[in-house]
Structures are given as structure tokens and as C-alpha cells.
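User: Some background: our group keeps a shared notebook of sequences we're curious about, and every so often someone picks one and asks for a predicted structure to add to the entry. Today it's my turn. The entry only has the sequence so far, pasted here. Could you supply the structure so I can complete it?
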Amino acid sequence: MPVVKIGNRKKFDVELVVFDKDGTLIDFHVMWGRRATAAVNAVLDELGYDAQLECRLYETLGYRPSDGATNGSGPLAIAPLHKIDVAMSTVLYQHGLAWADAERTICEKFSPHMCSDPTDELVKPLGAVEESIKRLNAYGIRTAIATSDNRISTLKMLRMLNIADRFDVIFCGDDDLPQKPSAEVLQQIGARCSVSVEEIMMVGDTVNDLSMAHTAKAGAKVGVIGGATPTDLLSDWCDALISSIDELGTLE
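Assistant: Of course. Here's the predicted structure to add to the notebook entry:
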């Protein structure tokens, strides 16, 4: 069985590495912080600026624009976009809008920014992503993606990183499939790749990613620091911490 090593510290016998996308392959804060800010501003432009509403929208998202701090267990960090839309609509409804008006405002003003086409400015790779994935594949280690982002956006970003054809399976937030943190995500990915869950390494930047791997009894759980979750919380759920996937090596 292939071996993935992390520096000279740890070695894991795995056949398949499953990656989260945002905060793992690309910079979470650059992509989603800017999208969230633009989306909230569009809602406030439509309804008229209200400091209390602004605060509630950001609190519900789990994002603090003043310093870019993100709640690693909040919607912005882990929820599919359609569920974020429901949460934002609820804030507007509680603010006094009729439900239909709240949904329309989120659909027309908020969602377009959250689903906007990724640009080179926003898709900032965390390290030498293309080279790291190619190195794993060249050694016979298969790769997959499990993300809460939409499929169209995900595929565009992977193409921008030149790795869209490197994954055996890609699970996205708008697929009619199990969603993170369900253990079924890794179970189904393993089944599609004819690999047992015990032979899977999960690499992600949130407790959502790693708790899923823990429940599924994945062979290895690797946390990426600097994403949406503080390091001290992430460390409780993983076998190893890395600053980027550049640290995932192979036995030559």
C-alpha cells in the first residue's frame, strides 16, 4: 500500500486522499471573506444601511469583516450555499420583511455575489497545489474532493488550479448526495473508488471535515492550519497538522 508521510514526523498507509477545497487547496479568507462582504453590502444597499441588520447578517454567517475572523462551525465555513441563503432570508424576515420579500432580496442581491465566477484574484492556492497533487498521483495515491461549495464553481476553481482531471470523485454541496459532516460522504467516496474507509486520508481545515473522518473511522485525519478553524480546536480532531498540502510527501 502507498505511504503518505508528513515531514519526518508521521507516515500513513493510505490508498486515497480526500481533500476539502476552501481553506485546504485555496485560501478561504480571500475567497469567502470578499464574497461575504460584497453580498452583505448588496443587501444593505437594497434595504438601506442599518447597523443592527449588518451585525446580525455577519453574526449569522459566522464572519467578522473587521479582521476576517471566521467561526469554523458557522454557515460561511461549512454550510452549502443554499442553506446559507435560508439562514440569511431568516435574518431579513426577523428584521421585519415578509418572507417572500426576504427570499427575493437574498436571491437577487446576496446570492449572486456568493456564487460569482471565481477570478484569479480570489482563487489563491495554498502552496504548490498542482505539484503536490501530481506528486501523490505519480506515487499511485488516488485523490478526491469533498466540498460544500457548488459544483459549477468548484469545477471552475479546480480548472484554474490545473487539477480538475486529478480527482476520481468530486462531492459538492449542491449534489443530491450526502453532505459533510455525514460519514456517508467518505463511505460513498470509498465505495466509488473501491477503497475501504480505513484506507482513506481526509485533509481539511474545519472540525466539520475531521469529525466526519472520525465518525467514518477514516485511516488518517490531517488538519490544515490557517483556514476557518483556530489551530487549538483543529488539533483535537486530527492525527497531524500541516500548513499546506505541500507537506504531504511520499516514500520515494
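Suggested note for the entry: Residues 29-114 form one domain. The chain has a mean pLDDT of 95.
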